[in-house]
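Field log, afternoon session.

UNIT: design team B
ACTIVITY: writing a sequence onto a fixed backbone
BACKBONE:
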C-alpha cells in the first residue's frame, strides 16, 4: 500500500486477531430463510435438494481452505472448524467470517441449478457468520454435540409439525398447540400411532445432519510412457453419523491430533505409498501401458 499523508486513518482499524493455539469455529446461518424457502417451494419438513446444496457449498469452502479440519451442517447452518494451529489471515475474525460467508453464499448460488433443476433462483440468498474461539478439545466436542442435539430436537419437532399440517388437516397454530409441552417419547408415539411413521427410519441426514471430513482416495494416473499407476488425492467426504459418542473421534483421530511432525509426515507418506503399491498389485490390469 502506497504511503500518503492520509495513511493515519488505518490507526482506527481494530485488531481482531484471535487467540493462538485455540480452535476457531466459523458458523454461518441463513438470513431470512423462512421467506426464502417459502418463495422457492422447499419441501417440508426437509428438502433433500436444499440439504445437498448446503453440503455442496460447504464442501467447496472446505476444499478452498485446507486449515478447516471438519465441518458440520444442519438445516440452513454450517459450522467450520479450523485447526488449533491455523494461521489463515493471521487469525483475524473479520477476515475469516466474511470470507467463509461470501464463499459459501457464492457456491450456494453457483450450484443452485444443479439441485433445483426446475426452480429458478428468484431471490438472492444471504448467510451471516460469527467466529467463536474454543480453548480445548472437550469444549470443541461439546459445541459440536450441542449443534447435533439441536438438529435432532428441531427435526423431530418439524417432522411432527408438518405431519399434523400436511396429513392431519391442522393449521399451524393448532399443530403448535398440539405439540406444546410434549416430550420426545410423546412425539415418537404421535408419529407412529397417527401417521405410521417410525422416526428411527427417517434418513440419517435429517436426524443427524451432515459431517464433512478430509479423506483420501486412490486414482489412476497415466505417466508420459502410458503406464497407469495408483496415486492418492485428498477429497472431502460427507458423512451422516453420530459425532456425540467417542466412536467417531476414535475412527478419525487426525481431526484433533493437530499438525504432524516431520518424522510423522515422512511415515505417513511411506504408508500412503505402500497402499498405492498394494492397490496396483491387487488391480494388475490397470498397471500397464496403453498399446
Amino acid at each position: 500500500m502506497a504511503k500518503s499523508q492520509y495513511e493515519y486513518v488505518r490507526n482506527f482499524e481494530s485488531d481482531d486477531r484471535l487467540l493462538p493455539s485455540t480452535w476457531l469455529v466459523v458458523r454461518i446461518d441463513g438470513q431470512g430463510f423462512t421467506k426464502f424457502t417459502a418463495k422457492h417451494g422447499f419441501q417440508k419438513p426437509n428438502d433433500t435438494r436444499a440439504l445437498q446444496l448446503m453440503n455442496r457449498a460447504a464442501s467447496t469452502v472446505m476444499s478452498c481452505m485446507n486449515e478447516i479440519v471438519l465441518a458440520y451442517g444442519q438445516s440452513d447452518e454450517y459450522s467450520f472448524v479450523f485447526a488449533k494451529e491455523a494461521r489463515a489471515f493471521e487469525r483475524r475474525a473479520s477476515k475469516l467470517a466474511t470470507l467463509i460467508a461470501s464463499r459459501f453464499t457464492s457456491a450456494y448460488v453457483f450450484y443452485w441449478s444443479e439441485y433445483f433443476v426446475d426452480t429458478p433462483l428468484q431471490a438472492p440468498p444471504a448467510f451471516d457468520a460469527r467466529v467463536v474461539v474454543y480453548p480445548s478439545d472437550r469444549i470443541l466436542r461439546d459445541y459440536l454435540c450441542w449443534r447435533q442435539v439441536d438438529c435432532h430436537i428441531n427435526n423431530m419437532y418439524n417432522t411432527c409439525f408438518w405431519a399434523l399440517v400436511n396429513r392431519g388437516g391442522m393449521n399451524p397454530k393448532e399443530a403448535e398447540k398440539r405439540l406444546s409441552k410434549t416430550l420426545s417419547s410423546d412425539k415418537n408415539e404421535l408419529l407412529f400411532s397417527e401417521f405410521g411413521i417410525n422416526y428411527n427410519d427417517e434418513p440419517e441426514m435429517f436426524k443427524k445432519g451432515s459431517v464433512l471430513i478430509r479423506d483420501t482416495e486412490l486414482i489412476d494416473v497415466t505417466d508420459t510412457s502410458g503406464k497407469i499407476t495408483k496415486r492418492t488425492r485428498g477429497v472431502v467426504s460427507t458423512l451422516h453419523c453420530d459425532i456425540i459418542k467417542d466412536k467417531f473421534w476414535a475412527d478419525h483421530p487426525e481431526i484433533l491430533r493437530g499438525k504432524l511432525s516431520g518424522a510423522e509426515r515422512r511415515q505417513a507418506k511411506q504408508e500412503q505409498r505402500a497402499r498405492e503399491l498394494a492397490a496396483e498389485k491387487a488391480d494388475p490390469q490397470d498397471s500397464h501401458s496403453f498399446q
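LOG NOTE: The longest strand covers residues 210-222.
NEXT ACTIVITY: expression trials, pending approval
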